[in-house]
Amino acid sequence: MAEQVELPDSPSADDIALMAAVATIVGDVLALIALLKARNEKEEPPPPISRKRQSEKRTGG
Fold this sequence. Notes:
By secondary structure, this protein is mostly helical. The protein has helices at about 15-45, 50-60. The chain has two helices and no strands. The protein is elongated, with a radius of gyration of 26 Å. The mean pLDDT is about 85.
């Protein structure tokens, strides 16, 4: 018969540190992507306003 492999009940301190490092890297990458997108949005001109929206702005409704 095959040997039974024991699985640890809880992660070790090294495992937790590794998971925290991976989570930190993922968070940093997402923050960088958000900053780059925000910078690109600032550089782009705003979309043109349609005639309907212009009349709504003038009449207030």
